[in-house]
Each structure stands twice: as structure tokens, then as C-alpha cells.
Specification:
The chain is α/β, with parallel strands linked by helices. It has a domain of about 80 residues. α4 packs across α7. The protein is globular. It starts with a helix and ends with a helix.
Length: about 325
């Protein structure tokens, strides 16, 4: 997962001007944008409709750095996939990031000026996270079929699902395992279902692409050294498909009425848009002009968000 991939793709609230297998696509959505909308519709608007610039988070960039090292580690011969090799890859990988975007260097200016933990401490924390990975898996014994795999599938509703999967393993009998690295800690029981939604989303896409239901989904939490595993079945993925379609309908309705409500939560502490959020006394920029489609259906559910929140709680 690169820094560029973390940025928003074309807004899912827009119609996607493309055809897949001769079918006009209704729209497109990724797990990250779906998560944005569920967390806070206004966050979704700022990222995908306004496309406001965001400041880099040192934690997010560290996650991207670790992801890239783990991706590249599997390009090496199995015997070379050691903790020492992984640590040695951090600085060259970071230098390649900075070469692509020199503004990343300024993330540490304020901290270092205040004599607070800066770049060196940040890089050491990345080493700690990488070392923890080797306590969970032995990469010398694994040969992933795919890494950073772009996947997409068109549902019968004409909604395009797409995203990047960190790692796909295929067993000799053809069984598929999807793995996702998380540099944070595993969530509590109350939030685990939300994390698994992303993995079920990917499982649904791969099922639609390959006709095979992945046997196992695993979230590898490098923050506290825990792996969360789940075995989906057909009912799981059909339910996920219904949820995604319902979520898209809510996004479409929000776009029609030009209304995205803020939702205050703990996530606000890490939000780049807090200064312009009305829930925190800010003033959002004017809503961008809507692209008019003559065949667009009028909104039919002015209280869509309340209903969507109730649906989300029931689904958990």
C-alpha cells in the first residue's frame, strides 16, 4: 500500500464513466471509502467530494513504510527473509518515498524543534513493528501468490467494488487465504466486526472474480502482535454484498440531497478536517457544484443516515 494509494480515488459519489464486460457501471467503491462513510459522512464528503488536502500522519506513513518493506521482502529468496534484512530495507524504502514526495520530510519539523521524539525515534518504532511481524509468521516458509493485488468485481447491481489486497496465499489444493497487515493494535470485540467488514469486502470481490470463496481471512496486527482469523462462507459474502449495496444507496442519496452529516467519535482526534468541521465549531467550505445527470432519480429518504446507522448496528 503506497502513500499514493491512501489518497482518494475518483469519488464513489460520482458516476464512473466506464463499461465492464459491456455493462455501464453505476459507481465504484472501495473498503476505505466505505469505512469513511460509516465513520462520518462528512469525512467522506471532505475526502471524495471536496477532495480537501490532508496532512500526513506519522502513524499512517509508518504503516505505509512497513507495508512496503513487507511487500518487497517477499521478492527476496526465502532464506534472506530475516528480521535483519527487513530492518536494513527501511532506510532505502524511506528514501524512495522522500524522492517521490519531499514534503514528507517536514512531518518531523515541529516535534524536533520542540525537542520531542522525531525522525530517529519514528524509524526505531518502525523497526519494532517489523520485528514483531517475525514473531507471528515465518516469511521463509511462505510464498505468496500475490502481493498488493488490485482487485475489482462488478455486482449484479452494476456497482463496481475495487481495492488493494495486501497478500493472497494459495494452498496446493487451491484454497485461498487473504491477509492484511495492520500496524496498529487489534480492536476490542465491539470493533472487530467493523475491521472484518473490509476483509469480507475483499473476499466478496475475489469470489466474484475467481468463483472461489476464500477459505480464510486474516488481519495481522503488528501493534500488539495478534492475528485475527475468520473463515467466511457463502451466506457471509451474500450478506456483505447486501450491505455494500445498501451503503452505496445511502451514498447516492447523500449526493442527491447534498447533505453529509458529521458524526463525532474518537476518530475525530485523528481527523485532518477537524478545523472545518461544524461538530467542532468549524465552517466547511461550500459544497462543490453537483454534476447533473438527466436520468438521476430524485432522493427518496431524507433521513437515510439514521436508518443506515441502525442497519450497521444490526449487522454487527
Amino acid at each position: 500500500m503506497s502513500v499514493e494509494q491512501q489518497a482518494s480515488p475518483a469519488s464513489p459519489a460520482e458516476r464512473v464513466s466506464r463499461r465492464v464486460d459491456g455493462v455501464d457501471v453505476l459507481g465504484a467503491i472501495s473498503p476505505s471509502r466505505a469505512a469513511d462513510f460509516m465513520t462520518c459522512p462528512l469525512l467522506f464528503r471532505f475526502r471524495t467530494v471536496d477532495r480537501l488536502p490532508e496532512t500526513f500522519s506519522v502513524d499512517a506513513v509508518r504503516g505505509t513504510l512497513v507495508h512496503k518493506v513487507l511487500e518487497d521482502l517477499y521478492s527476496l529468496p526465502a532464506a534472506d527473509r530475516t528480521p535483519e534484512t527487513a530492518r536494513a530495507m527501511l532506510v532505502p524504502t524511506w528514501e524512495s518515498f522522500v524522492a517521490d514526495d519531499p514534503t514528507l520530510l517536514h512531518m518531523f519539523d515541529a516535534a524536533e524543534a520542540a525537542h520531542e521524539p522525531g525522525f530517529l525515534e519514528w524509524m526505531r518504532s518502525a523497526e519494532v513493528v517489523l520485528d514483531r511481524y517475525f514473531t507471528l509468521e515465518d516469511p521463509r516458509r511462505l510464498e505468496p501468490a500475490e502481493r498488493e493485488l488490485y482487485v475489482e468485481a462488478l455486482l449484479d447491481s452494476k456497482l463496481l467494488l475495487r481495492g488493494f489486497v495486501d497478500r493472497v496465499d494459495v494452498a496446493p489444493d487451491g484454497a485461498i487465504r487473504i491477509s492484511d497487515y495492520k500496524t496498529g493494535s487489534a480492536p476490542g470485540v465491539d470493533y472487530e466486526a467493523k475491521a472484518l467488514f473490509q476483509m469480507k469486502f475483499y473476499a466478496l470481490v475475489i469470489w466474484r472474480m475467481r468463483g472461489v470463496i476464500p477459505r480464510q481471512l486474516q488481519l495481522i496486527y503488528l501493534g500488539n502482535g495478534e492475528i485475527v482469523r475468520y473463515e467466511p462462507d457463502e451466506d457471509d459474502l451474500l450478506a456483505t454484498e447486501r450491505k455494500v449495496n445498501a451503503l452505496w444507496e445511502a451514498i447516492r442519496l447523500a449526493d442527491e440531497v447534498r447533505e453529509w452529516q458529521p458524526n463525532r467519535s474518537r476518530a475525530c482526534d485523528w481527523c485532518s478536517f477537524k478545523a472545518v468541521c461544524p461538530a467542532w465549531g468549524g465552517t466547511p467550505p461550500p459544497v462543490p457544484e453537483k454534476r447533473v445527470r438527466p436520468d438521476a432519480a430524485p432522493p427518496t429518504a431524507p433521513r437515510w443516515f439514521g436508518r443506515l446507522r441502525r442497519w450497521w448496528r444490526r449487522s454487527r
